[in-house]
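User: What would this chain look like folded?
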Amino acid sequence: MSYTNQSPTNVTVEPQYQGLLERVLFSTLTTAPCCMFLFINGTMLFTLRSKLVFRETSRYILLYNLLFADTVQMALSQLMYIIATSRTMLTYPVCGVLNMLGDLTSQISPLTLVVMSLERYVAVCYPLRHATIITIRNTGVAIIVVWAFSSLNVLTRVLLLLQFPFEELRSLQMKDFCSNVAMFLGPKSALYDKAYTGFLFVSAGVAVISSYIGVIVAARSASTDKASAYKARNTLLLHLVQLCLSLCSTFYSPILIALSRTVTRIVLVRAQNILYVCVFIFPRCLSSLIYGIRDQTIRPVLMYHLCCRLTSSVVAAKAEKKSFLNF
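Assistant: Here's the prediction, encoded as structure tokens.
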């Protein structure tokens, strides 16, 4: 009799315990790489402000803008992931602010990649006019235009949200987890998001591919520096890969919606965690890895800042050992 009364309790508690344990495990597995990449990106941002050559070179200024947007986007994504994992329900205004900041920074990356691709195109195809066209002032103007265009998109989304009759809601407390899809409170918002995303990535793709083709054509001419042209070609190819990875993040929600119709809930949660790392975290650290390893000017400075504590401790240990031997 006692066993019969306790058995249902054990059956009920055990799945809950396993669910909590699995949430903690997946949260750790996603938070750990995110923190590591945030540290790398932060070190890269500090590196790009530590030397005068980085602060006065257009491509490094554009790289700083790209890294800054990616870092903020990764931090916001991780914050919203932790909020969802802890099963915290936000209000519509708070969720809206988080999503608008995420939308703003997510649009900066493809637009900055376009500007960086055009800069490489000018450097190879018009080397004599590069210093005249790609100036610090023009680079600053391009960055302002990128942020203004992204801000205009956010303002349009806000205006579409204001058309929703919030006064008819009993409470502003959300009944679902905060996400980009949860803020599509009307058909116009979803339609605008699809149209804008398609226009953005098609335009960016055409610009990067055109720059890539232009560099390949220039590399075949006798008057072009072959080494510089091939290096620019590889850089543009990496920009195209980065653009494709950014595009993959737009398929995150549709993939989850499609999976939810065919797989169980637990499989969907596991797939969501894997997709989150592959689609949101990894592409945001790709710029640091690409430029930190490939660029001969950045690499020694970046490695110095990444390993400064380790180097300092080794030097201190050697000095202490030397003084002990002399004694």
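Confidence is low (pLDDT under 50) at residues 1-18, 312-327. If you want, I can go into more detail on any region.
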